[in-house]
Automatic annotation (TrEMBL):
Official protein name in the record: CopG family transcriptional regulator
Entry superkingdom: Bacteria
InterPro entries for the chain: RHH_8, Ribbon_hlx_hlx
Pfam families associated with the record: RHH_8 (PF17723)
Lineage: Bacteria, Bacillati, Bacillota, Bacilli, Lactobacillales
CDD domains: RHH_NikR_HicB-like (cd22231)
UniProt-listed GO biological process terms: regulation of DNA-templated transcription
Amino acid sequence: MTEEKFIKTSINLSPVDAGYIDILVAKGLFASRTEFMNYAIKKELEHHELAIDGFVAEQEHQQATQHGGELLIGSYRYDDAEILKLFQQHLIYKQLIVVGLLNLTAVTNQAALFRQIQAIHVFGKFSASPTVLAHYRGRSI
């Protein structure tokens, strides 16, 4: 299965702000509103890079001192075989924190999943069955 490279989101803009963006597009500075939004978001994330890096470092420190946690950055897909590997390696995650995409839709053995990963928090997109989503709702950091 190919993982998504982008997450679709929508925003509400005032008509004036949308008009300003349309002027920039009309002048050829951006190919589209989407290109402008991607550029603006990247610039804003760069502006807040210290805060993001501080959060990641704090989470890594907490995971190192509170055994049984894991911080992952990127796109991750687990299936029953991956959950079985965790079991065989005697890994039980008290909490799994993902910055990016976590896809658990291929997991069919939910009891094994719930046993191996006790809590999940995703900053980004979390794809899973309704049962898995319901189980982990309220069990995150």
